[in-house]
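Tip: read the tokens left to right.
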């Protein structure tokens, strides 16, 4: 019996998470592996009930589960709250830190049938398959922050970018190990020409490389990487980078695959792993049955693979997603003229129907 904490969160999280849970229910039946789902509150619902977006109850639930499935946090209703109560800062970041999730994996796969959904040319993106390791519990998002009033008016705001050798080493090792199982190429992305933290990053990754002589390591500045990702993305296989660079670069890379709504993620490093789509709560389309649930469904495929070692089940979920796309079903974010346009619920149902036949 695997215990899964389910945190739908805000906005489209409430629509896409049920579709992913329904996929897991079919897997449970097919593979005779029971899953126990327990729903927890995070962000707006939690704030309304407990006065905090990440209550202890939710944290305890996550820590006592085998895996966590998260939708997204972020609600316009909470935008006016002080920073220490905003869900991104008071729920998402502490949840990752408390669970020790220092490695965020974001695989970008360009499905042949989605090539036309990308804004880039087919010859540039066909065959792209990139795995990014984003450091998740250090850097600018976690360093000390402050805002100080200035004597002559206005404020001075400070965010601190902190990294330790140990933090860099552990994510680098995971990325090297992944590269060994793939094409043995690793690109480490930093800004070592300007930032001291990036100089430590580069030195540390270079030192770790000595333990992986079969992997070819390349260093690249983040601004160049942003450009290369749209110029010739096929040069990349595994990328490792720090927290904020990874946040931005993976959103950009998601468009190679057609939509942010296709980008799954797994956050690893602690006893319990967390799975969530890479996108946010998308308030602009929330509650309209328009959200693409595939990133969340692909995230549960990662859960099956990494947390439960159910590789065949994970393969089946990924195959079902691919088939649905090949049959022309599309949510609005990846639609093309003449496609079979469906909403969130219908897309989930199509995946499940195919999954049952595999
Ligand atoms: P977003 O990722 O929510 O949306 C960006 C754009 O992509 C929007 O146009 C949205 O409609 C579209 N989009 C996102 N997911 C989609 C899906 N599954 N299907 C179809 N279209 C999709 O980013 P944002 O608008 O900058 O942020 C909205 C809120 O989400 C903010 O409060 C932000 O802080 C939060 N956020 C949370 C997370 C998280 O929970 N991990 C990540 C990013 C942003």
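Filled-in amino acids:
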């Amino acid at each position: 019996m695997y215990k899964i904490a389910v945190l739908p969160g805000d906005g489209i999280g409430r629509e896409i998470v049920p579709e992913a849970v329904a996929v897991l229910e079919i897997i449970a039946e097919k593979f005779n592996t029971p899953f126990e789902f327990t729903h927890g509150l995070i962000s707006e619902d939690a704030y309304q009930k407990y006065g905090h977006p990440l209550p202890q109850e939710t944290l305890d639930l996550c820590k006592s589960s085998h895996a966590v499935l998260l939708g997204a946090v972020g609600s316009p209703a909470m935008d006016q709250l002080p920073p220490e109560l905003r869900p991104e800062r008071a729920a998402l970041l502490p949840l990752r830190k408390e669970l020790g999730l220092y490695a965020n994996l974001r695989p970008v796969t360009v499905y042949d049938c989605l090539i036309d959904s990308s804004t880039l040319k087919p010859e540039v993106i066909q065959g792209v398959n990139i795995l990014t390791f984003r450091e998740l519990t250090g850097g600018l998002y976690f360093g000390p922050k402050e805002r100080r009033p200035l004597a002559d008016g206005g404020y001075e705001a400070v965010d601190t970018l902190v990294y330790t050798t140990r933090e860099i080493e552990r994510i680098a090792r995971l990325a090297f190990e992944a590269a060994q199982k793939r094409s043995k190429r690793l690109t480490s992305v930093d800004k070592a020409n300007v930032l001291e933290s990036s100089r430590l990053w580069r030195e540390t990754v270079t030192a770790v490389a000595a333990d992986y002589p079969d992997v070819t390591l390349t260093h690249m500045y983040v601004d160049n990487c942003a450009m290369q990702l749209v110029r010739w993305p096929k040069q990349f296989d595994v990328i490792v980078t720090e927290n904020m660079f990874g946040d931005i670069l993976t959103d950009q890379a998601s468009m190679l695959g057609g939509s942010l709504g296709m980008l799954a993620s797994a956050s690893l490093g602690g006893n319990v792993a967390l799975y969530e789509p890479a996108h946010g709560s998308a308030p602009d389309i929330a509650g309209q049955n328009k959200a693409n649930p595939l990133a969340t469904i692909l995230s549960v495929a990662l859960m099956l693979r990494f947390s439960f070692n159910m590789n065949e089940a994970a393969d089946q979920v990924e195959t079902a997603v691919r088939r649905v796309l090949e049959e022309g079903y599309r949510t609005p974010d990846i639609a093309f003229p003449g496609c079979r346009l469906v909403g969130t619920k219908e897309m989930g149902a199509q995946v499940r129907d195919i999954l049952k036949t595999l």
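The two ends are 23 Å apart (CA to CA). The pocket of nicotinamide-adenine-dinucleotide is lined by residues 12, 72-74, 88, 92, 260-261, 276, 279-285, 291-292, 295, 333 (CB under 6 Å).
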